[in-house]
Amino acid sequence: MYSKKVLETFRFPKNIGEIKNPDGLGKVGNPTCGDVMWVYIKVNKNKKGQEIIKDIKVKTFGCVAAISTSSVLTTMAKGMTLEDALKIDKQKIAKELGGLPPSKMHCSVLSMEGLRKAIEDYKNKKASAD
After folding, report:
1. What is the per-residue pLDDT across 60-94, written as a single tens digit (0 to 9) for each?
2. pTM for the model
3. Which of 11, 68, 84, 94 is the most core-located residue (most Cβ within 10 A)?
4. 13 burial via Cβ count (<10 Å: 0-12, 13-18, 19+)
5. Which member of 52, 58, 88, 107 is catalytic?
6. What ranges do the domains of the chain cover?
7. CATH code for 4-129?
8. Residue 31 pLDDT level (bands cut at 50, 70, 90)
9. Which of 7, 16, 33, 36 is catalytic?
10. 107 annotated active-site
């Protein structure tokens, strides 16, 4: 049912936990399956002056696919510009994991939405500080 990469990522997830005083926080959930994710980001600028995700962590309560997709999302997004991170979609997440069963694709959508909400939260905080 699950690829080796999904199972390995589930057993050894990366970037799990919280960031104290995050620049952005996205909380998402799926009431149907019960999965809940919090995505925390710290933003900095690279040498070109572009805003990048300097650090990213997740807290995920859910199934194997939810934990695996949120973990792989963090490894994909870390170091990316905000614009590039917003381009991560469910297909890219699933491909990075060697595929997901169709019934579990909603987990990759949830991860993606959590990141988008964290970036949106960051942008809203920045706009209100200006």
Report:
1. 999 999 999 999 999 999 999 999 999 999 999 99
2. 0.93
3. 68
4. middle
5. 107
6. 4-129
7. 3.90.1010.10
8. confident
9. 33
10. yes
